[in-house]
């Protein structure tokens, strides 16, 4: 199945020719990883272009809607105003169709990229674990080559985080309540029951999203624990200074604010720079959720200061609440279907 998704990905995005044209250095020595990295970078660039186009169309649509509204509110529009309104309405319809099409392209781009990202992360984890095993054996024989091995390992870890963050999506859920009145007729009750089933489906999809993030987080925690046995400290370099952070959560973090107010770090082995924080901290707010992303049901927030176990606890609590509410909506919908049947029989 994963292979099929990768084939589809390569069909939708013409990146096969990029196999031998990787335009940046990678800490990984796998051609397959390099190919997928390049393909995903191109995919991200294409997605950014689509999103920019979507924003431009949104602005045009808003401007056009305002112009249409102004013409409609005229007390005595002239002949030319009527012609202009007619043309604007036609253009507005065409623009709305373009918005629908670009939304479909954005959804397809994201949907096609997701399994490829998962495949890439799995391949990276496998190579990191093989490298840890190899380094562990060589360490028993020679302890003089510690620094180069540590630098490559941390580069691999942060390069992996880069691709997790590039395609990370915040969790979101929108629910609406429904109230059943004693005066509701059977048809209206059935509509409300269908609405509750739709809400249940949303919760089920939300639960699946939480499952995926929990699985990814648990995998990251296991990998970090394995790396921590080898790395006493993680070093991050930029062109002007060197910082050293404990691979365990740190509360004492130096700042590297630039003139623009954003933290920057130069590449270790050609990968994109990362904020100078520990591996676990970078994972916390880049890989799973955006900063201060509120979990809808528990009303908890994932913050940059949360450690991984705290995030895991919050996600599991949110998942349990989603499961409970989905079950509750399912029971309510079933009860409403039965109520509609009884009222239909009574009406006869």
Task: Name the descriptors.
4 strands, 348 residues, flat, two-stranded antiparallel ribbon, single chain
Q: Secondary structure elements and their pairing?
A:
Layout: H1 2-12, H2 31-72, H3 79-141, H4 146-166, H5 186-230, E1 233-237, E2 242-246, H6 279-288, E3 293-295, E4 300-302, H7 308-347
Antiparallel strand pairs: 1-2, 3-4
Helix pairs in contact: 1-3, 2-3, 3-4, 3-5, 4-6, 5-6, 5-7
Q: How would you characterize the overall build of this protein?
A:
With 348 residues, the chain is mainly alpha-helical. The protein is 67% helix and 5% strand. It has helices spanning 2-12, 31-72, 79-141, 146-166, 186-230, 279-288, 308-347, and strands at 233-237, 242-246, 293-295, 300-302. The strands form two sheets. It has a two-stranded antiparallel sheet with strand order 1-2. A hairpin with a 4-residue loop joins strand 3 and strand 4 (300-302). Helix 3 (79-141) packs antiparallel against helix 4. The longest helix has 63 residues, at 79-141. The two termini are 53 Å apart. 21% of the residues are buried. Mean pLDDT is 75; it is low at 5-9, 11-23 and 233-286.
